[in-house]
User: What shape does this take?
Amino acid sequence: MSDLVDKANKQQQVWLEAQVRQARLNAQPTDDTECIDCGEPIGEQRKRAMPSAVRCIQCASKRETPSNSPQSYKQAGGGQKGTKR
Ligand SMILES: [Zn+2]
Assistant: This one.
């Protein structure tokens, strides 16, 4: 019964690991410990996970908002269901 969930979790894990690996390959480690946008400390944990990070998690997530994400799809009024009552 939980096989499907298990499979999905594993697939996500594999995908995540691939993303992290790719990010590490692409990115050059930096010595910055403060966010280049707001000047707040990036955080040791984040820095360890992503040595190339130059922004704190807040600023980074503000920038990393792909226009084709499911969220913007919803905001654009896509999939208008549930109008019947
Ligand atoms: Zn910041």
